[in-house]
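Structure in, sequence out. Go:
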């Protein structure tokens, strides 16, 4: 462990490093109360430890991404949590003695650093209190009660800079020096693995003059340089994109250009994709388009939203003088925002007046921007240190919420978070100075969705919102109460004196909101009562001592740390689905029904045999619709983010509004909308969120982006309706026994000659007489050569798979865009460019054998269809161009082809009761399992590390397989 008394890289120095009061007051110090631990017994001695091997592979090519054998973890930690902590958070070079190999080592590395810094800076009343602090923090981390954000695990107690913050806000002024500083500062933050946001509204618009004459470039032009920098540096030297947020005020004269940036680039992506370029997220050619490395948001104020409501005009103002230089129709501008978000998910929206109404430090400056995930909002050039609690750890066996223990853990965690600022390093001097002066913290939680379902509350219900609101109010109130107690011991934050009145005003707003909040049932009642008492203590102690922290709480995505804590749901999100994918200790995996389902059914009064029947139904169908004995009024309790029954977009917004009054910062949240959603519905979401007091949100309409891979299974393919029965158990191993359907002796076929990058070959594709493609043979090079042998083996493997029922679209989705030599130009007018031989083969097979709708969703079109799109804006054929099967015809080719045929066959025809499901060779996590089981598209990118499909976590994406995220933490 490093010496925590060492200086920092930025802003080194005595008092400034720890705040105004770094030493103890006479007779002062916290008395730490025991929560979980026993005197004289170390937390490590109370659990069973076991050794495990961690081997993580990329399923796409079978390569080993990470391997470390013999690691030590408690026996109750899941395989997934073990893998993620070992690969992400263990420090030291692999294969060396310096490499960490036990969970004990990383917890000690962090906790002992925190204890030492707390003792040095006068936080504890005695050494005994310091020891209790150490043991309680260790126990809570060991038992997955909470987790610090990732930078703590990366950096604390190592020889590298002690960066503890995950979220940063920068600033930029209207000068070239400041703009170049922005590029540099942002790059340094990306290099360290974190994300940053900033507001560009100080930069003069392209409609204003420079002092030397001529027009200014405008912020949109400078965004290009920053975007290129982010795409080059990526994040932490890793393969994923950097995380950044770019904000522009709605009254900026370049606001329309800002709104349209990503819309225009999305059109460019589509055109390039149709020309054969690899435009998937992470593809080789996606770097040719701009503005893809940032989330964009518009800052709207109450004046603008009122103008939208009234249908009046709104003025765009010069940056230097503030005078109106252009007037626009507010409703029309709002419509353009909604149209852009509908088309490409950007820009999001931030409600400036609401944000600054809850600002504790307005005398020190306005809140202008947020971090990339939109949960941290405070002063420019500042950072936020996050930690999240696992709410399911506080649910008692009788389904009541343990508010007393919850509050004690909040006090423990917020104390540790504040101590970390005493020794933390920061990427720039300005950020270090601001953070030490205002000590912004962001405590939050995960597993809310699981908690609501387990207690029998629908996510979109008054009872669910009341329970969520009560927990949030108690959490933030307790955090500020502990901050006021700390202010009496080690002093308030440096900026408190000038902001005392507004800070106390915001505390009163929180308390008033708590008093006015609607109550639900007997479960949330005691929590509200505890929160009410706590807020009264906040007002009393704050008036006496001031506050230690300018900000206390946020709701982060909790991506990687959520997996570390074995949480079923992240942040404020509902459950993804009712079934999930579970890795087993001995290798392999299984499908399980979420454990929250039987717990919820039991609370709702169902008998054990009824619970078993419902769970068995879910195991077979993936949803509760039609479950035996389940009353229809209980269906909504089991609504999820994806699946047969999904939570409405407004249901997500209403949940955000129910907890926002007790979040110091904001909520990381993207509101998913179906592909069929309209621009008017986007407008409604953005408008109602303002009315409901939400601080910020973004929407995502399914399949609106080109660079998102789609499910390999169509919802209406009708191939896998029947599934085998299974015992009514919570955990059920999925066993598939597909039956091979051989082709007849005589079968229709097509032989195609092709050239890819100068390499010539022949492909023969044979079909079932009435049921799709059944085998493929490839001929390249001379017989007996290595290449010819590999192509024969590959052909046999694909052919046998199709005869066992693997759909052709599955092969197409997996093998297209695979890149290796030979690659390049082809002699096929429908596929002008190919990344490899297999890329060409499966594009050709898709064009010949897949229905138009299926291959269009995969981005594969004939030359005729691409031409039609350029002329009419649609790939779809006119009525006279469609055959009786409803399938579009490709342009004439030199070879004779059969009539268009449906996609590859399922298992052989059999009575419905004995029908066999399709095999599932490509399922690697819960998202892919849900896609296969319910035939839906989870519109998410593939993980760059392990190749599995990621899922939403707040406004970021999370990989369940390896813990990688697309966000800032």
């Amino acid at each position: 462990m490093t010496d925590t008394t060492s200086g920092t890289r930025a802003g080194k120095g005595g008092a400034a490093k720890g705040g105004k009061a770094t030493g103890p007051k006479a007779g002062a110090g916290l008395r730490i109360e025991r929560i979980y631990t026993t005197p004289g017994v170390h937390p490590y001695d109370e659990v069973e430890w076991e050794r495990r091997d961690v081997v993580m592979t990329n399923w796409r090519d079978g390569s080993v991404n990470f391997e470390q054998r013999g690691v030590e973890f408690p026996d109750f930690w899941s395989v997934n949590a073990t893998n993620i902590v070992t690969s992400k958070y263990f420090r030291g070079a692999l294969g060396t003695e310096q490499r960490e190999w036990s969970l004990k080592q990383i917890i000690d590395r962090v906790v002992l650093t925190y204890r030492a810094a707390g003792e040095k800076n006068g936080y504890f009343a005695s050494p005994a209190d310091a020891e209790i602090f150490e043991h309680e923090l260790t126990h809570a981390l060991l038992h997955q009660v909470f987790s610090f954000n990732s930078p703590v695990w990366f950096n604390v107690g190592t020889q590298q800079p002690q960066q503890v913050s995950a979220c940063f806000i920068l600033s930029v002024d209207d000068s070239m020096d400041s703009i170049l500083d922005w590029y540099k500062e942002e790059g340094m933050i990306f290099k360290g693995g974190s994300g940053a946001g900033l507001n560009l509204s100080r930069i003069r618009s392209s409609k204003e003059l420079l002092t030397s004459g001529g027009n200014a470039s405008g912020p949109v032009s400078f965004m290009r340089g920053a975007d290129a920098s982010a795409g080059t540096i990526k994040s932490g030297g890793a393969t994923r994109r950097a995380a950044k947020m770019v904000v522009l005020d709605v009254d900026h004269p370049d606001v329309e250009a800002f709104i349209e940036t990503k819309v225009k680039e999305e059109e460019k992506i589509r055109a390039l994709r149709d020309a054969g370029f690899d435009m998937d997220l992470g593809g080789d050619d996606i770097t040719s388009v701009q503005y893809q490395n940032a989330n964009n948001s518009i800052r709207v104020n109450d004046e603008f939203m009122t103008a939208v409501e009234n249908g009046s005009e709104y003025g765009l103002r010069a940056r230097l003088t503030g005078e109106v230089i252009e007037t626009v129709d507010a409703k029309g501008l709002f419509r353009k925002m909604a149209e852009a978000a509908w088309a490409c998910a950007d820009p999001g929206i931030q409600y400036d007046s609401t944000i600054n109404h809850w600002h504790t430090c307005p005398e020190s400056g306005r809140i202008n921007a947020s971090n990339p995930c939109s949960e941290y909002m405070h002063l420019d050039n500042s950072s936020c240190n996050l930690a999240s609690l696992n709410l399911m750890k506080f649910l008692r066996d009788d389904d009541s919420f343990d508010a007393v223990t919850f509050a004690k853990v909040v006090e423990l965690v917020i104390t540790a978070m504040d101590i970390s600022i005493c020794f933390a390093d920061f990427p720039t001097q300005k950020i270090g100075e601001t953070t030490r002066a205002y000590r912004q913290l962001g405590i939050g939680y995960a597993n809310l969705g699981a908690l609501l379902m387990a207690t029998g509350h629908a996510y979109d219900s008054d009872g669910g919102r009341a329970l969520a609101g009560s927990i949030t109010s108690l959490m933030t109130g307790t955090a500020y109460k502990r901050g006021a107690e700390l202010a009496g011991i080690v002093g308030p934050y440096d900026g408190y004196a000038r902001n005392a009145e507004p800070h106390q005003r915001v505390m009163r707003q929180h308390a008033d909101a708590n008093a006015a909040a609607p109550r639900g049932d007997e479960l949330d009642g005691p929590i509200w009562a505890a929160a009410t008492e706590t807020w009264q203590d906040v007002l009393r102690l704050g008036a006496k001592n001031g506050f230690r922290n300018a900000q206390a709480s946020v709701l982060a995505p909790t991506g990687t740390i959520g997996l570390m804590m074995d949480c079923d749901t992240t942040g404020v999100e509902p459950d993804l689905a009712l079934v999930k994918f579970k890795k087993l200790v001995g290798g392999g995996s299984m499908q399980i029904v979420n454990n929250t389902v039987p717990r919820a059914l039991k609370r709702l009064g169902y008998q054990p045999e009824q619970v078993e029947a419902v769970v068995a139904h879910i195991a077979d169908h993936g949803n509760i619709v039609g479950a035996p004995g389940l009353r229809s009024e209980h269906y909504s309790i089991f609504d999820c983010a994806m699946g047969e029954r999904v939570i409405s977009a407004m249901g997500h917004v209403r949940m955000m509004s129910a907890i926002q009054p007790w979040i110091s910062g904001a909520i990381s949240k993207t509101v998913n909308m179906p592909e069929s959603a309209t621009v008017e519905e986007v407008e409604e979401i953005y408008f109602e969120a303002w009315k409901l007091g939400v601080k910020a949100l973004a929407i995502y309409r399914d399949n609106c982006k080109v660079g998102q891979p789609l499910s390999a299974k169509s919802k209406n393919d009708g191939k896998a309706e029947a599934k085998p029965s299974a015992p009514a158990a919570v955990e059920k191993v999925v066993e598939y026994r597909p039956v091979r359907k051989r082709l007849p002796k005589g079968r229709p076929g097509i032989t195609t000659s092709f050239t890819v990058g100068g390499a010539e070959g022949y492909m023969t594709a044979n079909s079932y007489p009435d049921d799709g493609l059944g085998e493929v043979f490839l001929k390249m090079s001379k017989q007996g050569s290595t290449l010819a042998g590999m192509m024969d083996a590959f052909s046999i493997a694909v052919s046998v798979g199709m005869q066992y029922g693997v759909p052709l679209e599955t092969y197409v989705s997996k093998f297209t865009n695979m890149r290796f030599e030979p690659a390049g130009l082809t002699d096929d007018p429908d596929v002008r460019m190919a990344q490899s031989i297999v890329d060409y083969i499966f594009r050709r097979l898709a064009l010949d054998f897949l229905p138009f709708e299926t291959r269009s969703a995969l981005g594969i079109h004939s030359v005729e269809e691409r031409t039609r799109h350029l002329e009419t804006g649609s790939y779809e054929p006119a009525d006279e161009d469609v055959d009786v099967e409803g399938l579009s015809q490709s342009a004439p080719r030199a070879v004779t082809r059969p009539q268009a045929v449906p996609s590859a066959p399922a298992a052989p025809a059999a009575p419905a009761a004995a029908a066999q499901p399709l095999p599932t060779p490509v399922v690697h996590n819960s998202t892919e399992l849900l896609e296969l089981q319910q035939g839906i598209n989870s519109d998410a990118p593939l993980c760059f590390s392990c190749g599995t499909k990621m899922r939403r976590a707040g406004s970021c994406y999370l990989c369940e397989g390896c813990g990688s995220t697309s966000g800032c933490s």
